[in-house]
Amino acid sequence: MNNTLMGAVDIGGSHITAALVEAETGIVMHNTWQRTMVPATGTVDEIIDAWGRVISGSYMHHPLKPVKWGIAMPGPFDYEQGISYIRGQNKYEALYGLNVKMLLAQKLGLKKEAIHFTNDAACFLQGELVAGAAISMNEVIGITLGTGLGSATCKNGKVLDAGWWRMPFKEGIAEDYLSTRWFTKRYHELSGNAIDNVRQLLEISDRSLLQNIFNEFGHNLGHFLLQAISQDRIELIVLGGNITQAFDLFSTSLLSCLSRAGNDTPVKQAVLGEQAALIGAAAAAMEAQEVN
Length: 292
What we know:
Elements: E1 5-11, E2 15-22, E3 27-37, H1 44-59, E4 69-73, E5 77-78, E6 83-84, H2 100-108, E7 115-119, H3 120-131, E8 139-145, E9 149-155, E10 158-161, E11 168-169, E12 172-173, H4 174-177, H5 180-191, H6 198-201, H7 207-229, E13 236-240, H8 247-260, E14 267-269, H9 275-291
Parallel strand pairs: 1-4, 4-7, 8-13, 13-14
Antiparallel strand pairs: 1-2, 2-3, 5-6, 8-9, 9-10, 11-12
């Protein structure tokens, strides 16, 4: 087996993506790409079965089956032991306190040592460092904006989960203001109408209201970044996640907020999309294999 060919998985709040990745180069083998929605509020069996089908489907028609799998997983999660502590996020609550690594290994017919979990935001940033917006950089912050708030730092080439989602911010924590639920709450406050996600917000006819909401979001994100990065010397801030698809709507207010505070750190939109987490998960799995 090519010892740099890794299985890579990205587990999101409502989906799973899997593919085989050449970890050293960051090349995703697109003929192995599998993606589906997941019953995130379902039972243990429903969740593990859905994950298992996608993962096994990624190598079904490939001559080589990787012996190591890197999985990008949202937190709270014990990444070394493989135990989920996700609760109160309307996703994967059935897995709370369970050894997900063992359940998945049994489903796939693997040894649990073959599965390596890594924080999903750290995988995103690692992928962008290997083959995306942050190639050759050493001091970078990665932020994912979606169902939740993900954050990771790269210092001297070492990527770590920052865990900033729970940072005290304004009248709550950062994730209260920098996630899908802020958009749905704020739109309801201003319009009296309900939406389920940012995609629905983007479809509203009142474009002035839409822009005002995104201006406020960009302002919030700017102040959060100023608080989070403090005096750290940062070469680049990379933004990813589904909300970043509307970057043009909040980039001006974000950059203005940073500029007014005298912070000229470049901010870039991630370029790899879902591939970033897959590449990062594969790289983390290869690193773990080399250590062991």
